[in-house]
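To assess whether the prediction recovers the assembly geometry, we first specified each molecular entity separately, as shown.
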Amino acid sequence: MKILVCISNVPDTTTKIKFVDNNTKFDTNGIQWIINPWDELALTRALQLKEESNGAIEKITVINVGLIDSEPTIRKALAIGADDAIRINAEPLDAYSVAAQMAEVIKKDPYDIIMAGIESSDYNGSLVGGMLAEFLDIPSVSSVSSLNIDGGNVELSREISGGKEILETKVPFLAIVQKGIAIDPRIPSMRGIMMARKKPLNVSEPIEVDSLTEYSVYELPKPKSKCKMVDPENVKELIDLLHNEAKII
Amino acid sequence: MSVLIFTENWDGKFKKLSYELISYGIEIAKKLNTSAVALSIGNVEDDELKVLGKYGIKKVISVKDDRLNNLVNQAYASVISDVAGKENADIVILSNNYSGKALAPGISVKLKAGVVAGAIALPSSFDPFTVSKMTFTGKADTKIIIKSAIKIITLSQNSFEVIESPTDVNIENISIEMKDADFQTEVKDVQKIKGKIILTDAEVVVSGGRGMKSAEHWGEIEELAELLGAATACSRPVSDEGWRPHEEHTGQTGKIIAPNLYIACGISGAIQHLAGVAASKCIVAINKDNEAPIFESADYGIIGDVHKVLPELIKAVKDFKSEG
Ligand SMILES: Cc1cc2nc3c(=O)[nH]c(=O)nc-3n(C[C@H](O)[C@H](O)[C@H](O)COP(=O)(O)OP(=O)(O)OC[C@H]3O[C@@H](n4cnc5c(N)ncnc54)[C@H](O)[C@@H]3O)c2cc1C
Ligand SMILES: Nc1ncnc2c1ncn2[C@@H]1O[C@H](COP(=O)(O)O)[C@@H](O)[C@H]1O
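The predicted structure of the complete assembly is given in tokenized form:
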């Protein structure tokens, strides 16, 4: 069995976001890039499954659609423990084109389980995983918070509006994962970092594909007006403000 | 041309969220001089379907099929795409909740339709078709242009006002042929949260952080939440400690919510926490440290000990409610 984990390369949440060219471009200067947090958890779970599988899972591959500057992030995934990596050499234009690019490569060399994150922390689309499953014509299970394999059966739990579902499915399928799938992300060990340099990172050339959406203008939210302080001895005033000024209660 | 609105139901009932979607869809249809159609999937009684007319929808298509009682991504996406084709819809609207996130991508590929996920307002232009959404975990606002002929919008909760404009509803019950291949996942068990407001649906959220000190102190959070009709939430260390269930943790690695009011009790306001709550319309912070970063994002603040402030606040809300 083979598992594929989709990895998006995103700015670290703690870095400051700036825009250039009249706010039409994201300023990548000085940005610290990381593996999208959900993808890191997906990879962590994939590695655990491989270790528990007694050899039934042979390989964990990571895939990214990105230009050469996403390689440090891909190498980090290899250092954490992925066996090999694929980079599709294209600028990720929108979710549709990214999923189409990946589908093309995966169709030629299919995987049993594909994992993607619930959303990337830059464009917050929540789209790529579901689109990829549709392109590949395999079932997807969204908002997965646990995934276990028992022989040929896969048991998943997922969050739905207002509760939780336990599901069963068979491979191949795509899991769109969220919190719970793994508790803490694995961090690369020294040995992992050394080994990562020698692991295969295969670069694949992109196909022609249209993007369907375009980012036109970015705006930073208006700075919040200063926080209004309420005297702790007069909490009633807060209720008045929420009722009369903010008109929320 | 038409606007198709997928109105999800919860055990056969609609919620405010469904009315927000209808109001939003009707507004777009008006601007484009076309009609809007609502689509309901699953077992919803006609009387309940008629309720949607209160928000101005004239036509409701209902697909009832026992196989569609649980959300199966593939089957639902097929049904919605089929109906979009039949209705000649060029705009499809869903909610940006778990269901919308599960369905929009599949519909997008089937219809080759671009998606704006998590729209926060009406399109700012129809040519080019431009819609705003939050990006970079709430740190920026981005205008997205959809270039394809068919467009999909998933609407963020609490970002569009419910508008009432009652009209008669014409209900069309249709059946859609479904492929077995669309039912490869099998639901074994469903655990519904009963008698509690669901965090991702809530208009008001009362949240506690490490400053609450221990699980025993959550009684105050729950009491305040109950009084305000609010859901409860927490910061990550709180769920890591096991004081609260993991489902309640908000932030970069937890839930991302945008209620009208978020009350943060004993939460420092770390950037990873704010990533999940910064889009709230109004934030109230209670913290004993006047330099806690949460005050930079808050609209109203109280500097003080939560264990003293919360009982006072509970009392003030009770008084407010009894005064009517
Ligand atoms: C990769 C990564 C992802 C993360 N994701 C998340 C996430 O999704 N969500 C999240 O919440 N965190 C997340 N974190 C953790 C985050 O950085 C903070 O550590 C966390 O949010 C702090 O939680 P807290 O505010 O409850 O606790 P603390 O930082 O300990 O703050 C407690 C606050 O309570 C106040 N306080 C203490 N006693 C009282 C009292 N008696 N009365 C009033 N106030 C009091 C203190 O002044 C302080 O401000 C993440 C961290 C990393 C590195
Ligand atoms: N450029 C990319 N390359 C590989 N996987 C990606 C890429 N962009 C997004 N993904 C995957 O899709 C998930 C959801 O991303 P998004 O739809 O952009 O919110 C991410 O968590 C990744 O698993």
